[in-house]
């Protein structure tokens, strides 16, 4: 595996330039009032395929050797990474087999199928158990396994290119609220942000019921597997990758653990305050501000809103609450 470096992140920027959207940074007056500091939202919910994951998929698949392209790839996804891989694989003519948990959001599942990927729904609700199946299939078939997060090229593109855009658009920002699932976005973002702005404060925002990040800090090593939990925020469920954790462990300025109801309230807030429908996994950073769990903020802040992919049935349940 390549080391994560600033040059690798800059290479990723060149690779995805013109292939993904440069998503906007939008000020949030209501969040700014709550936080007591200017807050802007990095709107990756407006990205191609509905999430930031398209960045990593383009960079990783675009760098594959000819023999790996010919054999095809296997991956596992809670949904957004799978959609991104399906999109890029179709564009590049690469066969992609995507394993998803039984509890996968139906809109994400449908999106993968619509892009002609080979989608395998497992008998497990959790990501970690499903990923084990995917890795076994990659080994059996001799195809490359493409991790959704535990890979430096994924970190460089998913988080690193995102951080570079944010710092160009908001050079005054010093607090960065990042969703943490497997650590692919948060690790890459934290690496580039702290390399560029030494006084950057990184706040990792995670699902309270699947809190791999604080548990990993407590144990001194990445907790890569956790028991599955029932949640609408499937992108935040499960263990954290070793690659992202090694970056985050020395760069965190805070951790915000959010309950399910707090995350769903943040989804409703985004509809009310900004008229954006976002998925629960991406609402965790907004929830961290609404609940005060990211406090004290004190400096201009950017909260990353990572995606929009959520099924209509789930939206109805959220709005009915």
Structure explained in plain terms:
By secondary structure, this protein is an alpha/beta fold. It folds into 2 domains: 216 residues, Rossmann fold, CATH 3.40.50; 93 residues, 3-Layer(aba) Sandwich (Rossmann fold), CATH 3.40.50.1100. Helix content is 46%, strand content 15%. It has 14 helices and 10 strands. Strands 1-2-10-7-8-9 form a 6-stranded mixed β-sheet, with helices on both faces. The protein has a 4-stranded parallel β-sheet with strand order 5-4-3-6, sandwiched between helices. β3, α5 and β4 form a beta-alpha-beta unit. α8 packs across α9 and α9 packs parallel to α11. It is globular. The N and C termini lie far apart (45 Å). The model has no long low-confidence stretch (mean pLDDT 96).
Which structural class best describes the helix and strand composition?
Answer: alpha/beta
* Nearest-integer average pLDDT: 96
Distance between the termini: 45 Å
User: Could you say how many structural domains there are in total?
Assistant: 2
Summed up:
With 321 residues, the chain is an alpha/beta fold. Helix content is 46%, strand content 15%.
Which descriptors apply to this entry?
single chain; 321 residues; alpha/beta; Rossmann fold; 2 domains; 6-stranded mixed sheet; 4-stranded parallel sheet; 14 helices; 10 strands; globular
Please write out the topology:
Layout: H1 6-16, E1 25-27, H2 29-35, E2 39-43, H3 53-62, H4 66-71, E3 73-76, H5 80-92, E4 96-100, H6 106-114, E5 118-121, H7 127-141, E6 144-146, H8 152-169, E7 175-179, H9 184-196, E8 201-207, H10 212-219, H11 242-248, E9 252-258, H12 260-274, H13 284-290, E10 301-305, H14 312-320
Parallel strand pairs: 2-10, 3-4, 3-6, 4-5, 7-8, 7-10, 8-9
Antiparallel strand pairs: 1-2
Helix pairs in contact: 1-8, 3-5, 3-8, 5-6, 8-9, 9-11, 12-13
